[in-house]
Write a structure and sequence with these properties.
Layout (H helix, E strand, L loop, with lengths): L1 H17 L20 E11 L2 H12 L4 H15 L9 E8 L4 E7 L13 E2 L2 E2 L2 H5 L10 H12 L4 H14 L1 E2 L2 H9 L1 H4 L3 H7 L11 E2 L2 H13 L2 H4 L2 H11 L18 H5 L4 E3 L2 E5 L2 E5 L6 H12 L9 H22 L10 H4 L2 H8 L40 E7 L4 E7 L52 E4 L5 E6 L5 H14 L5 H6 L3 E2 L6 E3 L1 H4 L2 H9 L3 E3 L7 E5 L5 E5 L8 E7 L2
Helix pairs in contact: 2-3, 2-6, 3-6, 6-10, 14-15, 14-17, 14-18
Length: 599
């Protein structure tokens, strides 16, 4: 099996090396950052993100001798300007790093944390869970941000440039502005009602009281000043200085328009919560798949364990020879089972006994794989198994339904000329986060605490994802790096999309590794997402396909989702060459760039 995958990857490498489609131009002839291209091939390093200005910021750092970690921080900071509804310094995320010298993978958990006063009644009033829509746009939903601390931790461990230098492209972008596109306008329109609840948010993102016009220049001078302060004083200014004071005051006294009638429930964030925040440097999850090593995030994210378990379930099926219907059926069922186990077992390991090693064992996967039938569909919700005591084909027990997660977030992937790789997913939770902008600071605060279960998902089953003091809510972010048998990179990728992140990464990996799709086509392929629910979500490309009817004949049920995820990735090619890949159409298309295009 290992030789089969290696042979396929070799063929892919040759095919993409022949043509350099959409590569970034050399110095002096660079394409306009406003131009989005989904694939680029060349030397000197590569960056893939959803936004061309952000990718260009990373490429600028690589051209000036920075490494992959430096470029990732610069790209992320720029995304905080151009993708402010998906990410920024008011949020958190997960950083996966491959070090070419040691050929090892390490990770940073930069997830937001609940206030130290939080308990399992955080989102309960009068014995009833607060309506989700009301909890989102409130101080109650805001966790202590982890993104700035993640940047500093990554730079301290593996970077070669100072934070001040790396924030310069983003500071310039915030000061001088970027061009508004259809996606930015439509995301603003979708949030217009709740943005108007908060005067500071409305003033910034609804200039002159109206939606931003496509083609206009959007500037954020407050964020430029905030970046400049972080550049001068370090990220400590956000955790212990004036910015920290502003965050605490904003969360605990949300600056709501009194005429809106909106009940912006106050939070209980303290200076101690901010000053005491720490990222976690931890080992990745590792799964062996087709002789390759698949590395991702361990809990508090459920991404690594759930993608890894699903891959282990699929290990015994030769997906390269399966028909399209057989492939999708197996992929959907493996996702369904892995999500069943995720709901029961995965939470913040500082609070929960998470059996990470057992969830990722092939023995456990085999005990779950036998539930899958070629001519029938499992009934959701499927009950979890017990990875500590696997019982073959055991479908007894009580299922824990999948809780809702916001579908925003953003992902970037970077490689440098030395062979280092970063796969980094960051977020403020759903599109627009809490909707609350810190006055005078230019960034929106997250609503990450709504990723907790408001009440137990099932009264009969322990819920590992209830709120607690300083607890990290469970995430689905799945930044992933795949290594070959010599511990060299094959591919790195990730995606936004809430709980659909897991299925997007799984489907893209199997499309690339098993089905032989070029990386950009594996990313662009129409998606299906099954999360232990009664129906599977399909994008239009599958909804309108004959495959839908053929899967329905087996017993699958479906509902339509217009867009699932927005992945990016990089692929190592021979002789120091890299391929960067992004979306062709989702979110208006992504942006792939390289330092020096292949001729």
């Amino acid at each position: 099996m290992r030789r089969s995958v290696a042979r396929k990857l070799s063929v892919l490498a040759v095919s993409v090396a022949v043509v350099s489609v959409g590569a970034a131009a050399p110095p002096g002839a660079q394409s306009s950052p406003a131009e989005k291209v989904p694939v680029a091939v060349g030397y000197g390093g590569a960056v893939a993100s959803v936004d061309p200005d952000a990718s260009a910021a990373g490429i600028e750092v690589l051209r000036k001798g920075g490494n992959a970690v430096d470029a990732a921080v610069a790209t992320a900071a720029a995304l905080g300007v151009t993708e402010p509804y998906s990410a920024g310094i008011g949020g958190g995320g997960y950083f996966v790093y491959y070090d070419a010298r040691s050929r090892t993978v390490q990770t940073i958990d930069g997830r937001e944390t609940a206030p130290l006063t939080a308990d399992d009644q955080l989102f309960v009033e009068n014995g009833t869970a607060i309506p989700f829509a009301e909890a989102v746009s409130s101080g109650l939903s805001v966790g202590t941000p982890g993104t700035p601390a993640t940047w500093q931790k990554a730079l301290d461990k593996w970077g070669s440039k100072g934070l001040g230098t790396l924030l310069k492209p983003a500071e310039r972008l915030a000061r001088d502005g970027f061009t508004v596109d259809d996606t930015f306008r439509s995301q603003t329109a979708a949030n217009e009602t709740r943005f108007r609840y908060f005067p500071d948010t409305a003033k910034l993102f609804l200039p002159n009281g109206a939606l931003p016009v496509v083609g206009s220049t959007f500037k954020n001078p407050d964020l430029a000043r905030t970046y400049a302060e972080l550049a001068r004083n370090g990220v400590g200014a956000l955790y212990r200085g004036d910015i920290a004071e502003d965050i605490v005051d904003t969360v605990n006294h949300p600056p709501v328009d009194p005429g809106s009638g909106w009940n912006a429930r106050p939070g209980d964030l303290s200076a101690k919560d901010l000053s005491g925040y720490r990222t976690k440097l931890q080992a990745p999850t590792r799964t062996s798949y087709r002789g390759l090593g698949v590395y991702s995030m361990a809990p508090s994210s459920s991404g690594g364990t759930t993608v890894g378990e699903a891959l282990n379930i699929l290990e015994n099926t030769d997906l390269s020879k399966a028909s399209e219907v057989q492939y999708l059926h197996r992929y959907i069922e493996a996702s369904r089972i892995a999500f069943a186990d995720r709901g029961r077992w995965v939470g913040d390991p500082a609070f929960e006994d998470v059996p990470t090693k057992e969830l990722l064992s092939q023995r456990y996967a085999d005990s779950r794989e036998c539930l899958i039938k070629d001519d029938a569909v499992l009934t959701s919700p499927v009950a979890p198994g017990d990875p500590r005591d696997p019982a073959a084909c055991d479908a007894r027990g009580t299922a824990a339904p999948t809780t809702y997660e916001g579908d925003s977030t953003t992902h970037l992937t970077v490689a440098d000329k030395w062979g280092n790789v970063v796969s980094y997913t960051l977020t403020i939770e759903q599109t627009g986060g809490s909707g609350i902008t810190v006055p005078g600071r230019g960034f929106i605060l997250n609503n990450e605490l709504t990723d907790f279960s408001f009440t137990p998902a099932s009264p009969a089953v322990h819920d590992p994802n209830l709120p607690g003091p300083g607890k990290r809510p469970r995430s689905s972010m799945s930044p992933t790096i795949v290594l070959d048998r010599h511990d060299k990179p094959v591919v790195a990728l990730g995606s936004p999309g809430g709980a659909t992140i897991i299925t997007t990464v799984l489907q893209t990996l199997t499309g690339f590794l098993d089905r032989g799709l070029p990386l950009v086509d594996a990313i662009a392929a129409p998606r299906a997402s099954q999360r232990n629910q009664t129906t599977t979500e399909l994008e239009p490309g599958l909804w309108n396909s004959p495959l839908k009817d053929r899967l329905a004949a087996i017993g699958h049920g479906f509902r339509q989702n217009p867009e699932i995820g927005a992945a990016t990735g990089v692929q190592r090619l021979p002789n120091g060459k890299w391929l960067a890949a992004a979306e062709k159409a989702r979110r208006g298309g992504g942006s792939a760039m390289v330092v020096r295009p292949a001729s």
